[in-house]
């Protein structure tokens, strides 16, 4: 069958028209969804911080004389009793010092005995007018000088014997060795700490507060078994730490029946009664600290605006902040580090 050229041309034009449909326009990018939370005032809330169990007295231990450590008898974490030997020095030089001091004392005793004999003889001769009064006075002076030299030699011998005893470092009281740095063969100077002893007395909780928060007088700590132990403020650092901008406080545990492990980090709670109208509580995920200080993102008319704040405390999943916010403001609760100023967003349904 022969197809006419005209009919063939019409068919080709028809197929071309069918394939020339316009491509769908690219879907416009929609603003991302964000989860928001309503800012609530922080007044009357609980201030929660981490606290470290510390001993009331932590004593650095050191030798009173220098020398080479010959023996180390303890390890870190070990409980020791009062008087227990912890380290020993090589005491050969100290023993030689004792021998030298004893020899000096023997010589001083001999010199004193000679001076006393001379004085007795001069007194006898002076009564017979065989020596002058001046000679008797010189004999008395020689005797006093010999006595003084003997006293000095006695003191040096006592010091040498004490130094020999200082070659053994003993625990002054019972406790637990937090750290042990001395090693056998190490040469140490007098007063150089070789161990740190936590005395077996009451335990305390060390807490670091933000610089603009006054440590409360009372609080509580949550022990490992879940018990709430009352705390009482014992001391507060006189200055703010220049690095962390925090203030250190020590709290006494009022219930000594619980055995608290040294160095354990426990949760503490304090009544934040000093919070003012500009203190608020937000989720930790709402904080954004990308090199410009802490801030939160407030949602206004579908766009987010950064608000600079100060972090007062962190407690689990909540941050206590201070800044130019108003109770009822809505801030982004998650993903704050992904936002930009005046970025358009969509709020998730509550």
UniProtKB/TrEMBL annotation:
User: Gene3D superfamilies annotated for this entry?
Assistant: 2.40.30.170, 2.40.420.20, 2.40.50.100, Helix hairpin bin
Q: Which residues form a coiled coil?
A: 105-163
**What sequence ranges are listed for the domain Multidrug resistance protein MdtA-like barrel-sandwich hybrid?**
64-196
One GO CC term of this entry?
efflux pump complex
What range does the record give for the signal peptide?
A: 1-19
Q: In the record, what terms sit under GO molecular function?
A: efflux transmembrane transporter activity
Q: Which residues form the Multidrug resistance protein MdtA-like alpha-helical hairpin domain?
A: 101-166
Which family is it part of? Belongs to the membrane fusion protein (MFP) (TC 8.A.1) family.
UniProt xrefs under NCBIfam families:
RND_mfp
Name assigned to this protein? RND family efflux transporter, MFP subunit
């Amino acid at each position: 069958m022969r197809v006419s050229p005209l009919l063939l041309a019409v068919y080709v034009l028809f197929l071309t028209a069918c394939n020339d449909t316009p491509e769908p326009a690219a879907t416009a990018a929609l603003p991302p969804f964000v989860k928001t939370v309503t800012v609530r005032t922080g007044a009357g809330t609980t201030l929660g911080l981490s606290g470290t169990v510390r001993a009331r007295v932590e004593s650095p231990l050191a030798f009173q004389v220098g020398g080479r450590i010959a023996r180390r008898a303890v390890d870190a974490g070990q409980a020791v009793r009062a008087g227990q030997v912890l380290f020993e020095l090589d005491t050969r030089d100290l023993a030689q010092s004792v021998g030298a001091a004893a020899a000096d004392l023997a010589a001083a005793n001999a010199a004193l005995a000679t001076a006393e004999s001379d004085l007795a003889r001069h007194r006898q001769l002076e009564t017979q007018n065989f020596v002058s009064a001046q000679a008797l006075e010189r004999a008395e002076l020689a005797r006093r000088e010999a006595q003084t030299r003997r006293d000095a030699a006695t003191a040096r011998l006592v010091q040498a014997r004490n130094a020999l005893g200082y070659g053994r470092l003993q625990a002054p009281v019972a406790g637990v060795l937090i750290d042990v740095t001395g090693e056998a063969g190490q040469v140490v100077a007098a007063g150089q700490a070789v161990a740190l002893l936590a005395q077996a007395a009451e335990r305390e909780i060390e807490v670091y507060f933000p610089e603009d928060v006054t440590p409360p007088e009372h609080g509580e700590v949550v022990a490992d078994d879940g018990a709430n132990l009352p705390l009482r403020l014992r001391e507060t650092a006189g200055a703010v730490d220049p690095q962390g901008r925090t203030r250190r406080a020590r709290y006494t545990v009022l219930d000594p029946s619980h055995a608290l492990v040294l160095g354990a980090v426990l949760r503490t709670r304090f009544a934040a009664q000093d919070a003012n109208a500009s203190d608020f509580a937000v989720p930790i995920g709402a904080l954004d600290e990308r090199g410009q200080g802490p801030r939160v993102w407030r949602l206004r008319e579908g766009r987010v605006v950064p608000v600079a704040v100060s972090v007062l405390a962190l407690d689990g999943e909540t941050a206590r902040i201070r800044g130019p916010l108003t109770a009822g403001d809505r801030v982004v609760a998650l993903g704050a580090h992904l936002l930009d100023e005046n970025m358009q967003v969509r709020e998730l349904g509550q």
